[in-house]
Inverse folding.
């Protein structure tokens, strides 16, 4: 926060937290519940490494964790409402029409079989199949900072089809089995319906083909979505002709097809890789979005690691003439959701949820997302040039039921800003509280 004095930076942190609390106040019917929620937020931003019920309670001056547990359990309030509050709060500072919406998942390691959605399943967090919950997330990544915007607990089919387990974990009756790509499509739809400004979507191979691609084409959004080497590609109407799997196509590329480009700044400088981009077809935009014009290009982007030559593949969709550098920059912004997961888990207790219910998980995660937004907004404001306050961008809310965008061009994004979310700058660094062993709140 070099652009702000220490005293000014502290006031920015404090004012951002006060504003976030004020925005979530209407979600609670009772003042005492709203106050407990505010103290819960304080605890997430506090210095304790473990954000358990006992530790949050001690930080709040409560004799026990019961008030903290009530926020996640028996209290009456809507987690989706808090999700929307956090989204709108972050967007007023970070909104950017060229932003990238990044989709990904993360695992929450668990013991036992009672926590909602827990099962033996693969999670990249552990790099193996293990007993865990899986959360699907959407991150908003503009030129300056980033924030977690949406979340959903993945409910495995064995859970979705088991009435007894559903009842014990209080899974809503209208929640059924949904694949991770289908969950992602719902998140994209909510972002469009809320008028969230973005031009691109980036995701890994879980979300890279099929429904997600078609939903984005119909929304008029560009994308860079991971695919496997076995993904079959073929071109038409363009030269040279391309046909085969992504791996086969990459193996036949001449040395001149590759360019060394940076996907953004990393901790050790530019993240350099060799890249190749193949145009597969040029299609009229109005084939997908009625009333729009212009050609869009379907393509294949290939990344080659400098050290070991490992290849990664991406399906792309963008306005004709979009440069390879712009596509690389979009893919490079996918780093932000990994950074968000790390910050939220190590600093804000994202994986310290002690509840077992469906609504308990969504409430805890939504509170963490609001805490993350406080950090992102305060940092963005602190990094504003001296004497300037970052303008709040007004956003016209979409009124159509399907949330479909009428924009037919995705502008190339700027490179990663230095004003990324801090890993260790929470408000709680101003003080500490004694700790107590974790208490399992069975809410």
């Amino acid at each position: 926060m070099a652009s702000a004095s220490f005293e000014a930076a502290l006031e920015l942190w404090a004012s951002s937290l006060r504003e976030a609390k004020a925005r979530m106040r209407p979600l609670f019917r009772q003042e005492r519940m709203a106050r407990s929620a505010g103290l819960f937020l304080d605890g997430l931003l506090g210095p304790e490494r473990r954000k358990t019920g006992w530790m949050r309670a001690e930080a709040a001056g409560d004799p026990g964790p019961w008030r903290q547990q009530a926020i996640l359990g028996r209290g009456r309030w809507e987690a989706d409402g808090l999700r929307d509050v956090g989204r709108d709060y972050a967007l007023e500072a970070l909104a950017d029409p060229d932003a990238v919406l990044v989709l990904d998942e993360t695992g929450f390691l668990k013991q036992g079989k009672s926590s909602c959605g827990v099962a033996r399943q693969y999670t990249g967090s552990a790099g193996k199949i293990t007993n865990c919950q899986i959360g699907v997330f959407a991150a908003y990544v503009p030129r300056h900072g980033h924030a977690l915007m949406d979340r959903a607990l993945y409910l495995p089919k064995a859970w979705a089809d088991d009435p007894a387990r559903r009842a014990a974990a209080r899974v809503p009756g209208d929640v059924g089995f949904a694949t991770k790509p289908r969950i992602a499509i719902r998140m994209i739809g909510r972002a469009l319906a809320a008028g969230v400004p973005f031009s691109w979507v980036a995701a890994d191979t879980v979300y890279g083909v099929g429904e997600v691609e078609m939903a984005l084409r119909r929304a008029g959004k560009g994308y860079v979505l991971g695919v496997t080497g076995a993904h079959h590609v073929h071109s038409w109407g363009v030269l040279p002709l391309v046909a085969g799997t992504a791996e086969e196509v990459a193996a036949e590329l001449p040395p001149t097809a590759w360019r060394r480009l940076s996907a953004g700044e990393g901790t050790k400088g530019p993240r350099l890789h060799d890249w190749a981009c193949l145009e597969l077809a040029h299609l009229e935009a109005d084939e997908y979005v009625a009333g729009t014009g212009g050609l869009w290009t379907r393509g294949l982007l290939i990344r080659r690691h400098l050290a070991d030559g490992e290849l990664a593949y991406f399906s792309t969709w963008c306005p004709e003439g979009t440069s390879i550098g712009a596509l690389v920059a979009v893919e490079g912004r996918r780093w932000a959701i990994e950074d968000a997961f790390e910050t939220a888990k190590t600093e804000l207790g994202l994986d310290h949820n002690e509840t077992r219910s469906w609504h308990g998980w969504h409430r805890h995660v939504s509170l963490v997302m609001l805490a993350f937004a406080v950090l992102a907004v305060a940092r963005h404001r602190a990094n504003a040039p001296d004497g300037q306050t970052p303008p709040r961008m007004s956003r016209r809310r979409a009124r159509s039921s399907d949330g479909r965008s009428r924009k037919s061009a995705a502008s190339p994004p700027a490179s990663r800003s230095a004003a990324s979310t801090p890993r260790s700058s929470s408000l709680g660094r101003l003080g500490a509280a004694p700790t107590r062993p974790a208490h399992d709140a069975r809410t």
Notes: The radius of gyration is 22 Å. The CA atoms of residues 12 and 434 lie 27 Å apart. Residues 389-443 have pLDDT under 50 and may be disordered. The chain has 13 helices and twelve strands.
